[in-house]
Amino acid sequence: MADKQKIASSFFNMVIVLTVVALVSALALAFTFSATKEARAQVEVKRTLRALKEVLPEFDNNPNDEKYTLSDFADLEFFPAKKGGELVGTAVKSYSDNAFTERIWLMVGFDKDLKIHKISVLKQRETPGLGTRMKEPGFRKQFTGKDPGVFKVSVKKDGGDVDAISAATISSRAFCEATQLAYKALLKGGNK
Q: I need a surface site. Which of 61, 148, 171, 178 has the fewest CB within 10 A?
């Protein structure tokens, strides 16, 4: 009987200790998340500005200050680039949910004629050495200067004009899908 009480008592103590440890851990995590929120937002803004400079023709405004969204494409963000008050291009923060692992995010830059200026990969978690090669200039440069109205923005395996990354067709398709979504959104009113 004494052994049963001892076991019940130690089980109760373990539950109490584990509950306290879990609560302290959750509070510490919540505090850290809250304390770093502003710093993480600043990092995101810097990443966006760096991508805008990479994918757009030369501009003298701050596209991030003029960004906008469209109700039909709520998850996309549009960044108009101007020089001397004239629109020289628009960057679109676009995505695809059909990547190999999780949603990828691209910044697709278009010139004023809606040709692709350049593309930057903002976020991806594809397979290292395979899908991650979408970040390499060799893959991305096949889109540069192309008019998605004429250039078929899909992999050759699907009847398109894009050379897929070897052994990473799913990632290549997702990249094309995000690029095509950005173009579609610009045609539907995103090119202001």
A: 61
